[in-house]
Specification:
Keywords: DNA-binding. The protein is mostly helical. The chain contains ten helices and no strands. The protein has two domains: about 55 residues, Homeodomain-like (Arc Repressor Mutant, subunit A), CATH 1.10.10.60; about 120 residues, Orthogonal Bundle (Tetracycline Repressor, domain 2).
């Protein structure tokens, strides 16, 4: 049987090979066009598959991006976890704890560090990440919690600053503080952004 991509005899690509081809094409398109500019249909066309197959493997553009960039956690999961709190008064604690849970896990910390460092040194990656974070974290958080975008961004900015000091630069004593010490320190400041609306 001829291969559909090469016309040469051989077996048909299996699910793993097809999935990897989709991811390779997605990486290329995200790099060329950014998160906003790349579409699910464009990725499918580039990979020579039906858009429904891309949707089947990844659930949508956000899922493709998370897999293609080897992002360790989908931002939608973070919003969902924080949204599980019982009241708005607990958002600061929930956000601090969820953020630190992700960073404290070595399996997610390593790829997060790679993404953070890449975004700091490569304008194309920075643009792509900015579009992705805006679409998948900041906008949904604003809509879910009904908090003005600038307040959500200020809170996230503080957490990214902590990540830089603790995990990238290793500045003491924040680098060796316990997770609970940091939650106790960060939560009231984060909560102020959410209360003063």
């Amino acid at each position: 049987m001829a291969s559909p991509r090469t016309g040469r005899p051989g077996r048909r690509p299996g699910p793993t090979e097809t999935r990897e081809r989709i991811l390779a094409c997605a990486r290329r398109l995200f790099a060329e066009k950014g998160y906003d500019g790349a579409s699910l249909r464009g990725i499918a066309r580039e990979a020579e598959v039906d858009p429904a197959l891309v949707h089947h493997f990844f659930g949508g553009k956000q899922g493709v991006f998370v897999a293609a960039m080897e992002f360790p956690i989908d931002p939608a999961v973070i919003v969902s976890r924080v949204a599980e709190v019982g009241s708005r008064d607990e958002l600061g604690v929930a956000l601090a704890r969820t953020f630190l849970d992700v960073w404290e896990d070595p399996a997610s910390r390593t790829p997060l560090l790679a993404v953070l460092r890449s975004a700091m040194t490569n304008e194309r990656v920075a643009t792509m990440m900015r579009q992705f974070v805006q679409a998948t974290l900041l906008t949904p958080a604003t809509e879910t919690f009904r908090i003005p975008p600038i307040r959500i961004e200020a809170a996230i900015g503080q957490l990214i600053g902590v990540a830089m000091l603790r995990y990238v630069l290793g500045v003491e004593p924040i680098a060796s503080a316990t997770r609970e010490e940091l939650v106790e320190l960060l939560a009231p400041t984060l909560q102020r952004h959410f209360d003063e609306v």
